[in-house]
Amino acid sequence: MSDWQLTETFRSSAGTVRWDRLGPPGQDPVVLLHGTPFSSYVWRAVARALARRHQVFVWDMPGYGTSEKSAGQDVSLAAQGRVFTELLDHWGLGQPLVAAHDFGGAVSLRAHLLHGARYRALALVDPVALAPWGSPFFRLVGAHSGVFEQLPPALHRALVREYVGSASGPGLHPAVLDRLVEPWLGEDGQAAFYRQIAQADQLYTDEVQDRYGELALPVLVCWGQDDTWIPPERGRELTARIPGARLEPVEGAGHLVQEDAPAQLTGALLEFFRQQG
C-alpha cells in the first residue's frame, strides 16, 4: 500500500477525510474525484502525470478508501456533495480545474449546481449523471444490503473482486485488483461496502439532471467505449445536454478509464486544462 498514501486529514460533516496534494505549490490547481466502489488510488498514474504542470488534490470520500468508515454514516451523494464543497473551502480553492469519475461526477455536479462550488472547468469521466443508473447487480444488492452484509468474509471478498474487476475492459492487474478490493474487507470494510450501495439513490441525480443546461463553464466528457457499467450512448446524451460540452471517446477502455487507458485520458485532460489559459 506504500505506492499510494494520503497523508492529510480533514474533519468533514460526514466523517474524517484522508487527502493529499501532488506537485509544486502555486501551480494551477486540479482536483480529482473518484467513483464507487473505488478510491483516489485509481487516479494515481494520472495524478502523477498532471502534477508535472499542476498542483493536484486527491481525496478519499467518507466511507471509501482510507477515509472514515462508521456505522450509521451518511455516504450518500447528497453528503458527498456537501463534503466536497467543505473541502474546497478548506483548501482555499476558489475556481480549480476539476476531473471527476463515475459517482464523483454526480458529486461535482451537485456541489456546483446546489452548493455554489465554482470550477474553472470540469472534466467528467464516465460519470453517474443521468437516469437510469445502477446495474442489475447494484440494484439487487441495494434492495437487500442487510442480507449481503452477512455474507461469510470469503464469499464477500469473491463478490467484491468480481464486481470491481468487471469495471475494466481489458482486465485489471491482480495487484491493482487487490489494492482496490482491500478497503472493503474486514468487518468495517464489508459493512461499508454494502452501506454505500444501500444509500446510492437515483433521487440525487434526478434532482440535478434537468439543470445541466445551466452549466456555464467549459465541460469535457470522456467515455470508455467498452464501458459495460454505463453505456457510451449515455455519454453522447450527457454531452448534448451541456452547452458547449465536448465528447472525448476513449477506445479500448471500459468504465475504469484511469486503469485501462491512463495515457490517453491524461493527454485529453492536459489538452483540455491547457485550453483554459
Automatic annotation (TrEMBL):
Question: What are the AB hydrolase-1 domain coordinates in residue numbering?
Answer: 29-262
**Annotated Pfam families:** Abhydrolase_1 (PF00561)
Q: Where is the signal peptide?
A: none
Q: Key word Hydrolase present in the record? A: yes
The molecular function terms in GO held by this entry are: hydrolase activity
Tell me the domain of life. Answer: Bacteria
User: Does ATP-binding count among this protein's keywords?
Assistant: no
Q: Which UniProt keywords apply?
A: Hydrolase
Q: What is this protein called?
A: Alpha/beta hydrolase
Q: Which organism is it from?
A: Streptomyces nanshensis
